[in-house]
Amino acid sequence: MNRKQRREYLGAGASVMADQKNKKDDMSIEHRKQVLYWRLLATVFEQEEAAPTLETLAGKIATEEGLPTSLLDGRVAIETLTQRYPELGAEFDNLYPGGEEEDSEQRFQDGGYDDPHDERSLRRALLLSKLMLNVFGPNANHEVMTADGYNQWLKDVGAMEKAFGSNPGDLRSGRKSLRPGDMAPDGSGGPGQGFDITNEELSETLKGMEKDIIKRMALREVLKDSKLAAKITPSMPLVEQLLRDKSNLSGVALENAKMLIKRYVDELAEVLKLEVEKAKTGEVDHSVPPKRVFRNLDLKRTIWKNLTNWDPKEKRLYVDHLYYKHTAQYKMANQLIVVVDQSGSMLDSMVNCAILASIFAGLPRVEAHLIAYDTRMIDLTEYVHDPFEVLLRTNLGGGNDWRVAMEPVKAKIREPRHTAVVWISDFYEIYVEQLMAECKALKESGVHFMPVGSVTSTGYFSVNQWFKQQFKEMGTPVISGSVSKLIKEIKEFVG
User: Fold this and answer.
1) Is residue 27 within 8 Å of 64, Cβ to Cβ?
2) pLDDT at residue 424 is higher than 60
3) Cβ neighbours of residue 222 under 8 Å, at least 6 residues apart?
4) Torsion over CA of 54, 198, 261 and 275, rounded to 10 degrees?
5) How far apart are the C-alpha atoms of 141 and 150, rounded to whole Å?
6) 317 — phi, psi (to 5°)?
7) Which tens digit of pLDDT belongs to each residue from 64-99?
């Protein structure tokens, strides 16, 4: 739809709403909600002049609800608004409570959020339109974006995520899914109402917007000023841009770029460490009989070490620690070889894998290796304990040729039964038959082979369908790109 068509469309919508202008008593909650969202569309598409009546009506509705008219001003940040009106903070945080209010879940199931007689739905529509306006409206579309403007946009996105029951960053990264109807355009959020926005669609939209904002921010110039650079909140799109542009940076700009990358890596590492710690590794193995355990008990040493616990009155020795004979055999370390396609579309995977490899490398009896490739191969094992250094040595590019990585992988394998090869790629290769034959050979040798579509925050992955079917028939189906699923698989291997 071009600018002229948008003007005509929005103008027609405004005319319909204007018919209600002098019918306050007859103007239903549903009609008032429609006013708010027609006005939102006009503002987002910068067509306010096509629908001047909507501004007046929206202001009137806000006043009737006891809300400040600054709620309708896209230039006012959510943070600023909640500082001026603290009572609004709780309302924004619980826009769709998801169990935080007593009857929220039942109301959601019953479509209560869209009750045309429920005044709360109108108030919710006002707050939702504010969030949408700040995230998708003119603030995100300045021709030249400042570091402060970019940071403020990130905070407003965080406020929207929080409103839907997520932590700031979760929806943008895909770590939290939306419930059906959470973002219906009529503000209802009820099942079957309006249209649904999937987690993937929202994540990709926000990522695309952020990339565009970064391009308009004159990032190289911002990086030359340490004060401006320090104001930036690092994110995946920002890290992507910095990694692609690092060869063009020098001096202060390069140091500030490194600082931002490290901040992001450290923050993400904390999140992934928690996921590794929480991941379940299956049921406890009870196959070793208790008798076999006590067979190795060092009775003399146990008695000697617990003599201080002798009770002369009761003539009883209390044992608080058991000692065993040193008969345990040496257990070979598990080799974890992570191979990552580093072509341009796989940056998210590269960042996550660099961090995960460093975490697993720190576990006992795990020998971690990391290889990245596109049309060339780089062995990053030397830096596997430092994901920041890994990323600085990664050169993202186009194309991928698995052959440059396969020989180094095979050369690293010492004991196949104690080796896991995690191959992360979209598997859009030229020499498909050869690659498949090599993968089969790895599996037949005893290697625990794990093909992975990607390792992204959203879990979205695109894989060559031919390979997907072949891997399935081979008994090694492609693991979805979810970080959590990969962590679980690796923990089961090393556990």
Assistant:
1) no
2) yes
3) 147, 228, 229, 232
4) 140
5) 11
6) -100, 120
7) 888 888 888 888 888 889 888 888 888 888 776 544
At residue 102, what is the residue type? E
- Structure tokens that stand for 352 in this block: 């996550």
**8 A C-beta contact, residue 440 and residue 431:** no
Closest CA to 335 of 373, 365, 371, 380: 365
Do residues 178 and 198 lie in contact, with contact meaning Cβ atoms separated by under 8 Å?
Answer: yes
Q: How far is CA 487 from CA 108, 253, 278, in A?
A: 33, 35, 10
Using one digit for the tens of pLDDT, what is the confidence trace for 241-265? 888 888 888 999 999 999 999 999 9
Q: pLDDT band at 196, cuts 50/70/90?
A: low
Element (H, E) at 369: strand 366-373
Domains assigned to the chain:
3-209 (no CATH), 218-278 (no CATH), 290-329 (no CATH), 334-494 (3.40.50.410)
> What residue type is assigned to position 443 of the chain?
K
Residue type at 447 in one-letter notation:
V
Contact criterion met (CB below 8 Å) for 471 and 261:
no
Distance CA 370, CA 20 (A): 65
Number of H helices and E strands in the chain, helices first, is: 22, 7
Integer CA distances (angstroms), 187 to 193, 195, 379, in order: 9, 10, 51
Residue 407 tokens, joined: 């020989």
320 close to 313: Cβ distance less than 8 angstroms: no
C-alpha span between 258 and 356 (Å, rounded): 20
- Which strands, in side-by-side order, build the sheet including 334-341? 377-379, 366-373, 334-341, 419-424, 448-452
Instruction: Report yes or no on whether pTM surpasses 0.70.
Output: no
Query: DSSP letters along 117-154, please?
Result: T-HHHHHHHHHHHHHHHHHHSGGG--SS--HHHHHHHH
